From TrEMBL:
It holds the Pfam family HNH. GO terms for molecular function: endonuclease activity; nucleic acid binding; zinc ion binding. This is HNH domain-containing protein. Residues 6-49 form the HNH domain. InterPro entries: HNH (IPR002711), HNH_nuc (IPR003615), Multihaem_cyt_sf (IPR036280).
Amino acid sequence: MDNFVCYICHAQKTLDFVHKHHKVPKSLGGSDGPDNLVSLCSGCHADTHTLARMMRNPKRVGEVRSAVQSMFPQGDVQARCVELANLANRSTVMSAGQKALDVEREIGVGLKLKKPYRDALQLIARDRGLSMANYTRKIIEDHIRRVYPNVGK
């Protein structure tokens, strides 16, 4: 680990004010090993996650540069924050996106997905905003309610 110095802004912090950030999220197979963890102060940790979400939203791509510049005035600090956000996004898009497409193929066969579910599938691929388990459960429950309206009554 990096001795309680924020990886992004290099501020020295005590143990109480340090967050451990996974470069590759655990939900996407990232480990708790030292190669996948960096210390971040709470402000940089929050900003990194905010930036990562902004970078995944195609409508907000133009805002990313100004957001980075306003959050972090120093160029080297900007680079480190963008590096972490990009790493998380690449992991998310490849892994979660693939899982989402697999679920759409396997569970979506024979089902007409309603717009909220199609939107949720896109969210999963971009932001992991809804877990695959919850998404799958909602599709199946909705399908059962439509096909078997008296089940559970």
